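Cross-posting from the chemistry board since nobody answered there.

I work mostly on the small-molecule side, so proteins are not my area. We synthesized nicotinamide-adenine-dinucleotide and want a rough idea of how it might sit in this target. Sequence and SMILES are below. Is it possible to get a predicted 3D structure of the two together?
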Amino acid sequence: RIPRPTVKRLSLYLRELESRVELDQQTISSKQLGDALGLTDAQVRKDLAYFGQFGHPGIGYRVSELTERLRQIFGTDRKWNAAVIGAGNIGRALMTYQRFRRKGFEIVAVFDNDADVIGRMTSGHRVRPMEDLPDLVRERDIKIGIVTVPAGAAQEVADALIDAGVLGILNFAPIRLDVRDAVSITSVDFSVSLEQLAFQVSLGLTG
Amino acid sequence: RIPRPTVKRLSLYLRELESRVELDQQTISSKQLGDALGLTDAQVRKDLAYFGQFGHPGIGYRVSELTERLRQIFGTDRKWNAAVIGAGNIGRALMTYQRFRRKGFEIVAVFDNDADVIGRMTSGHRVRPMEDLPDLVRERDIKIGIVTVPAGAAQEVADALIDAGVLGILNFAPIRLDVRDAVSITSVDFSVSLEQLAFQVSLGLTG
Ligand SMILES: NC(=O)c1ccc[n+]([C@@H]2O[C@H](COP(=O)([O-])OP(=O)(O)OC[C@H]3O[C@@H](n4cnc5c(N)ncnc54)[C@H](O)[C@@H]3O)[C@@H](O)[C@H]2O)c1
Ligand SMILES: NC(=O)c1ccc[n+]([C@@H]2O[C@H](COP(=O)([O-])OP(=O)(O)OC[C@H]3O[C@@H](n4cnc5c(N)ncnc54)[C@H](O)[C@@H]3O)[C@@H](O)[C@H]2O)c1
């Protein structure tokens, strides 16, 4: 539908636009965008036309409008193979979480280092030992590691994931992970929500 | 240790200070704080002395310093009994989550409406039917409801919790809940983290 070269350039446009957003730039012309990426203004207009009607006569493109649209396209067109590390309580729950799939995340493997857990079936997956991580990351094109091990094991697990070649880590352990720049990391922490709730309820109790 | 009337006033001080923080007020005198709450400046100084050394000669109190300290006391001194509604994957995982307890949240009951689930033991609790909710909220002084049912059931569960008398709801269902003003609500939503991660990884992939 959208030509492959255009899709490849999509992320370059998006990265460029994101930095313009940072600079608070309101509008941008196809020439400016082209110059920044070594493309002709004609190519830019041709590419962007695949994504929608964005050109404003005399203005060029509205930076935030275009950025928003490209983000949208970019997010939903991507499919990510993910692995869960730590087949415990929260790890097993996450394997059933449908919203992951709707966001394009497909859990294709689950790992653990506990002999009592390895080899068991959970949500249609057999739990694999950590030794199998590098091979499976390669074979199954795993890009995302979901870390659901205790805090004390989280850093070594993150290291193993990075060595195996993942590009992103979703961390559930309550500890700050040290990752190299090549890897993106996002943490999930309920305790902020809990503190907020405790605080609000406390204030409410006296009201 | 701290007199009961002082503890009761603690949240009034905190609420007043929070609005001063909002207004960017840097310092406040015991007289100002007293006037706002209908107390004498002497009472204010007496109360606050229980919480630490905060008075600065010629200044009064530093708003952010005092607020921070009261927030701390307020948060950690409180113990909240909580109920989990929805003994499914994430509900059962949460019942093992130690960090809840460290934040002062004690899960004292778990409920479900599925006959196959009711009566089972999970993490030391027997799953109760929804009919028992009002009685147990009262008997066990439950202040917080943790909602871990499917999106379609979340609002009716929230209603049941509010009717039963909880003061706060921690919502894991991916839907905005409509609650009355008397009830605080905080939502936990991983999909924001997922989108962020997908986006960062996408940008990284072209780098
Ligand atoms: N339980 C929850 O609801 C919840 C919620 C938010 C965050 N968390 C966090 O998620 C993590 C897991 O919590 P849980 O309740 O599922 O714990 P759990 O003990 O049930 O599961 C942890 C699993 O990790 C495995 N493991 C430990 N070290 C490992 C290693 N080096 N390599 C591979 N696997 C390893 C264990 O064998 C176990 O199966 C913790 O850091 C916890 O703080 C849990
Ligand atoms: N699984 C996860 O890791 C995860 C993560 C984040 C958010 N969530 C959200 O949490 C919710 C629960 O997810 P889950 O995977 O545990 O689902 P689940 O199907 O395993 O569990 C839901 C439970 O709720 C019970 N239930 C349904 N309607 C009820 C009602 N009216 N009253 C009382 N109990 C009722 C069911 O009988 C079931 O036991 C969903 O909204 C989901 O989107 C799940």
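Reply from a structural biologist on the board:
Welcome over. Reading the output above for you: The CA atoms of residues 39 and 82 of chain B lie 34 Å apart. Chain B has a mean pLDDT of 88. Happy to explain the token format if needed.
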